[in-house]
Amino acid sequence: TQLLEQSPQFLSIQEGENLTVYCNSSSVFSSLQWYRQEPGEGPVLLVTVVTGGEVKKLKRLTFQFGDARKDSSLHITAAQPGDTGLYLCERYGGSQGNLIFGKGTKLSVKP
Amino acid sequence: NAGVTQTPKFRILKIGQSMTLQCAQDMNHNYMYWYRQDPGMGLKLIYYSVGAGITDKGEVPNGYNVSRSTTEDFPLRLELAAPSQTSVYFCASSRSSGNTIYFGEGSWLTVV
Questions:
Q1: Which A residues, 9 through 38, put their C-beta within 8 Å of a C-beta on chain B?
Q2: Between chains, do B90 and A43 touch, taking CB under 8 Å as contact?
């Protein structure tokens, strides 16, 4: 199977803390997307990682693509309440319309 | 700056009723998708379309139908609604495979 496993499923932290969430697969993928979904809204793309070992930064968010292109991580520095949401990873499944999503990490940042 | 527009936002249906969720995009995207999202279950693909006149089943198509008569519109039809179809439905579009996917704001459907 080409499932994407995300961990942890839930994460509740205090404002100012750092955190890392993970997205893993048993198979290699050519690219991976990270989305954030806020309550009551649709997912919004944060970043696409393509190259093994690639690191991309988006303000306090750091995205890393594993060297073997089977895993990815999202690290948030000094989390803020505005970071609260569901973080989803997604990969292209290799055929038309086949986009595979992980189940997401639900992050709650308390002030 | 509309992007992907879904209607209605909220709907309550009785078991056995039918309804259509509307989806329109103004980005001239070829690909359109319908997903459902259940708590703790992630996004499941219902149907997708790679262009006008072409549709195909996703992972969970049973109980749904779609059509794609124009590039802009991709309505999702629920026939004989069942409680198992209570969910949040998201329409999405992309220029082609592997391109950025843009999601609508979702339609909350409750079947009672």
A1: 9, 31, 33
A2: yes
